[in-house]
What we know:
5-stranded mixed sheet, 20 helices, 21% strand, globular
Amino acid sequence: TTLEAFENQDVPFERIVEEVVAERDMSRSPIFQVMFAYQNKSDTQNLELAGLELTPEKIYLPSAKFELTLILTELNGELEASFEYNTELYNADRIDRMVTHYLQLLSSIVKHPQQAIIDLPILSQSENHQLLYHFNDNKEVFANEETFVNLFERQLSKGLNRVALVENGKSLTYGELNDHANRLASYLLSRGVTSETLIPICMYRSTDLIVAILGILKTGAAYIPIDPSYPMERIRYMIADAGAWMVITNQPSQSSLSLIDTCEVFLLDESHLTNNAALENISLSSSKNLAYVIYTSGSTGKPKGVMIEHRSLSNLIYWHNKDYGITGESICTTLAGVGFDAFAWEIFPPLAAGGTLHIITGETAILPAQILSYIVDHKIQQSYLPTALVPMLVQLSRGVKCDLKYLVAGGDKLAAMDLNSIGYVVENVYGPTEFTIVATTYHLHSSDSNKSPCIGSPVTNASLYILDESGGLVPVGVPGQMCLAGVQIARGYLNNATLTGQKFISNKYSDDATSLLYKTGDLGRWTSDGKVEFLGRIDDQVKLRGFRIELGEIEHEILQSKMVKQAIIVLKEYSTVEKRLIGYVVPEIDFSPMELKAFLLIRLPEYMVPSHWVTLKQVPLTVNGKIDKAALPAVDVEELSSVTFVVAVTDMEVLLTEMWKELLGVSKIGVHDNFFELGGHSLLALRLIANIQSRLGIDLAVKEVFEFSTIAELAKFLEVKTAGMSNNVNDEYDEMVI
């Protein structure tokens, strides 16, 4: 094969580039960026010349030709290896780890020569132990047989008149909440509700909603939260998929169910909470029973129901109250959408500890300024916020005196923000619905200001593994899919065994044969100190002009510019051949699209820089507080031209326009059009250089055509170069006269 390849050795390199490379990037070598070289020449140390003493000299190269080069050289019967690398992409620690992995791989190959390379281990025993055990060293024993109902009823002995819930200035004590829930539970049992009966609740945030949840759980049944603002078809689907024969609502929410005729609509009002006999304080649920089913968006377009058991919820409560110090004196809020799993996280821990829960309703729950006022006025100690609102509240609260201890962010990727002059801790959490809301947590510090925060380390009794495509552990610093295991893992998807089998797989890293691993579909990587950096979704990877692009990487770089508060990148497809990256940004005061583009071009390849920018006053959110990409404003294809047509004016611009038209076969060219976007390529660039040399007598390098790729840029560059040549001639004449 090698000998046959030599028959084509005279093909010009530029021709290969032209055929293989879709887009040239002058910041890197075309065709490949990683090189392996094996020098098997004779030992240079034995080289002798008459009358001369020869000593090998190692040469230091100030720049790397490729992103990464590994050179092996035979010396005295041994192999000497050296790495050469681009210091903007790698650091010494990363290269040290690569050396260790390479040596381990070579050792594995010798021991198992018949095994596929992809299956050979590259991690040392110490690294393997670090990833499996040290980074997941969080195991604790707790009363996992207890349910939330057990924990709640235990608080009753500490005083029935303590305030449990506050809504719009009205309060409900622990005794009243328990009595209302008992009466509802009694009614439900009389209607035939049994263990794991699925009962949807369609209500807005309210004391009624929490009464309904507690009443259902007391019977051993499981609840399904439905946001009344959901479209009717979505509500219908969720009720039908659950096979529910009853849905509970209240007066303010009942209009959302006006067209429901497939099951009974039970209106929870004061009469039901006073006329029914109260159930004794006894929980009919066990730790292995379902507590709730939450529907999340599905890739098929149909929501999928995630089944969460009581023991998973109990671990969440245990970790939360221990980590945040929640007690009977704590005052917390709930403002998440009821169909979002964060709502369950907000209500269960404080009520299990005997604390007070403030139910924030209306506009107050979505406006940072009003949220801050409520926190200050009601002496709130802990509050959860969707990530999109956190930077704004932090900015507003700077220097404001309040009782807040923890501001918890979750639901999406948290943006960089200034954390100075605030009197509370910002907590960044990560977790899919399939892992009972929270999987990792990270306390931000002032040193984290103005950089995208990590998502921290696994919560108590949770294990996190970052795996490659074949399911193997990836080393520290290497991206992979985040997978979760532990007591908080969901039972699976309701009525969807196929998807459950695909996403919940056997955990080969556990000694427990029944342990499952949930594949999140999220990308992350370990840092050397055992924290996890969130890198986005696997399905956020798009392909443009033959290049694979992670949209999250672009968003990260945009935020580093400090010109925008938030950024969302979307790949829009306008035809089978027309695809564009569109940047939606919430700008800072000094935002400039041109300056932002220049900033990005220093850090990213040209094909990763959005061609069009749309400014937003705020990012649209779903009812669950996540970014709603479907609600982003549309961009007309006619507006997508990244430049305004400007006709050539100067003599140099006119001359270059004529050359471009002839080379590119394009009849209309403006001075701001890009040579390569109009169809130019490496070979045409060489012809352009030849034309310029022939007609203007100016020598031009290939890289200069790439650097000055518009007529306006190239004309200005050539004019400066021409002026320099004239000055050199005049300087020589002046010297002769002198």
